[in-house]
Amino acid sequence: MVAPRSSPANPVAASVAERPDPAALLAWYDRHRRALPWRSLPGQVPDPYRVWLSEIMLQQTTVRAVKPYFERFLTLFPAVEALAEAPAEEVMKAWAGLGYYSRARNLHACAKAVVERFGGRFPANEDELRSLPGVGAYTAAAIASIAFDRRAIVVDGNVERVATRLYTVRRPLPGAKPLIRDLVDGLTPDARPGDFAQAMMDLGATICTPKSPACGLCPWRSACQARAEGAPEIYPFKDKKTTGALRRGAAYVAVTQDGLILVRTRPPKGLLGGMTEAPTSAWAADFAEEAPGASAPIRAEWRRLPGVVEHVFTHFPLHLTVYRTDLPAGTAAPEGCRWVPIAGLAGEALPTVMRKVVAHGLEGG
Ligand code: SF4
After folding, report:
1. How is the cofactor bound (predicted)?
2. Is there an atom of ligand 1 within 6 Å of 208 CB?
3. Identical fold at 20-234 and 247-363?
4. Ligand 1 neighbourhood includes 361 CB (under 6 angstroms)
5. Strand 260-265 and strand 276-277: pairing?
6. 206 CB under 6 A from ligand 1?
7. What pLDDT does residue 12 have?
8. 208, 209, 222: which to mutate for ligand 1, most atoms within 8 A of CB?
9. Domain at 20-234: CATH code
10. CA angle at 18 for the pair 31 and 234, rounded to the nearest 5°
11. Of 14, 134, 170, 271, whose Cβ has the fewest other Cβ atoms within 10 Å?
12. Is residue 18 among the annotated active site residues?
């Protein structure tokens, strides 16, 4: 056990009379737990497939955004075997719009590995879980804890916020991660560790929120050092983020008189790998506005549409100039591209940036 209040890494701890009691948090959780579609009800045995699926989807993504995707996946692929057997395109289509597409590829590979190596049953052990595609240290801990009630140290963004406030951790993230993990280790009980992990997440999501924590409702209000200091919202401290330089490029929306649009599939590896796109030029910081159609997939009369499509990826913002052309029915698709009905685009694995490009291109018709 860590003794956080005497930790040398925590020299400015405000004076509080008590330590955070895991039992108080669990009692709060029993009354206020969030109802989430992937969460088992009290007394129910959790389904590891649901827990795993939700944890992968929730990486970098909000609960609100994940809910409809989770429901759709469960309808399409009700068990890990169904997901493992599904064609890759079906999985990518179901994922389209959720972002961070390498997760979908890993999800599919992981489902296959669970079926092939573990007979369709997720392992309960963190090391075995970590051997699965797309399952890192955090996700392995979360599955072991939530699905199997193993004592694992689960630290997501919500938990980081709660812990840095409880113990006034002034070391900035990400450098503070090992310290935070030790502090959470010191808090995690042997009994009901899975509920404890979810309770920490719920506390961070609903009470100990980033901008205005509702400390008066918090089960740990008497033990919280940041509350005693008077300004909990200043935690966690973070190193300044460096965002990448703006990249620019051109995107080409070609439509036919009979309602088809030209698309292609991106290479399987890399950014948006395996997803569908309207053809584009390379995206580069030094991209120079080009003559209409200079990097177009097909020779035609391209016209530049006003404005640009803006999108922000994790590591860089992107501006795409959109060009549009209208072609006769029966025009042959250039190599590597294909025509699909505009009315059927919802069934394509179009990432969000490409939805914006297509919408911009069709509006400009
Ligand atoms: S008392 Fe306030 S700052 Fe401290 S853990 Fe609770 S909600 Fe967060």
Report:
1. Binds 1 [4Fe-4S] cluster.
2. yes
3. no
4. no
5. antiparallel
6. no
7. 45
8. 208
9. 1.10.340.30
10. 80
11. 14
12. no
